[in-house]
From TrEMBL:
One family name in Pfam for this protein: NLPC_P60
Coiled-coil zones: 73-121, 175-216
Signal peptide as annotated in the record: 1-33
Keyword Cell inner membrane belongs to the record: no
Protein name: NlpC/P60 family protein
Alphabetical UniProt keywords: Coiled coil, Hydrolase, Protease, Signal, Thiol protease
Superkingdom per UniProt: Bacteria
Higher taxonomy: Bacteria, Bacillati, Actinomycetota, Actinomycetes, Kitasatosporales
PROSITE patterns, alphabetized: NLPC_P60
UniProt keyword Transferase, yes or no: no
SUPFAM superfamilies on file: Cysteine proteinases
Family the UniProt entry places it in: Belongs to the peptidase C40 family.
Region (Disordered): 32-68
Amino acid sequence: MAHRARIWLHRAATCGALLAAAALAVPAQSAHAAPGEPSPAPSASSGASGGSDVSGGSGGGRSAEKKYRDMPLDELLEELQKLYHSAEESTEKYNDASDRLKKQRAEVKKVRGRLDDKRDEVDEGRKVAGALARQQYRHGSISPYAGMLLSDDPNSVIDQRRLIAQGVDAQVHTVERLEAAEKELSRLADRAQEALEKAEELAAKERGARDEVKKKLADVERVVASLTGTQLADLQRMEQREIDRMQAEFIASGALGTGARGASRGGAKAIAYALAQLGKPYVWGAEGPDSFDCSGLTSQAWLAAGKVIPRTSQEQWRQLPRVPLERMRPGDLVIYGAGATHVGIYLGDGAVVHAPRPGSYVKVAPVGSMTVIGAVRPDEGAKSMEDYKVPEVPKSAEKGAPIGTGL
């Protein structure tokens, strides 16, 4: 009997120790933080107005289209560029919200799984405690004095009672710790669920803003599509002049510094991947293999180089190490727009490869053709290649989209 009691105690102590360790392993925080708000920037719908009353989206398409048809070409180009900027901004904000939503769903699933496991441990701990209690009851059904009189070994009776009592006490404490851990995990699961609901609301809001800009952009593009060949050529020339002016000013500012810098091995691989995508269309939210948006291209290019980076231009700007423009090297990411709404991969020699905008395709463009806010380096610490050469890019890769060569 003493041997059986020791077996029970050994099992109880082993189970109790394991369960107690599991209880103490509950992290202080896992799902406390709700998804962060997107970086402050003008909303997609307000950013698209640019002082023009473009209301009703496609529902008010006829009145909006008539207004655009009456615009001089330079004003139409300005309105188109504003809408392209707003479209990219709203797309990246929606992508960011969608990415956060995906992560929060995974977090909720993980916490709920841990909670289920902890509940199973509590149930098992209660079973062990109950078995020990029953064993104690059986040994306590006669008086200790009578038990010792009837036993061949009175000392063994005392040992059995003491061992069983110790086992019961230890298991009760273990169950108490497990129950406390279960309650904490339950609170974490509730907070994770609340964060998930907020993430779902944010994603729905950003999707609505993106879709509203898409409607407005469609109005303008229908007008552009109806232009005569001469008008369209004039529009493209206006845009190209603006691009050339911005690039010239950017280069003249000395922002790029002097001297050639080589890519890292990872940067060279990312560039090779991006250049292999030339000519593929820009599609909202796409990340390959047949189409891309701006950050879809950059994140996939660096993934091909063996480096996982954030999905959106805003998160790339927030999370990746920043480098001064004068120290930028091929393979670094160039970030554009006040809200970090666009991104391209620096090729060297004052050029980037990027997925510009709806209606365009992956191509090479002057690095200064948009408003640069900075650069980030996905592989900070990696050495530059001394024998790196900037890849030759086909001239066809620099030709404009149907509506121009810019953003």
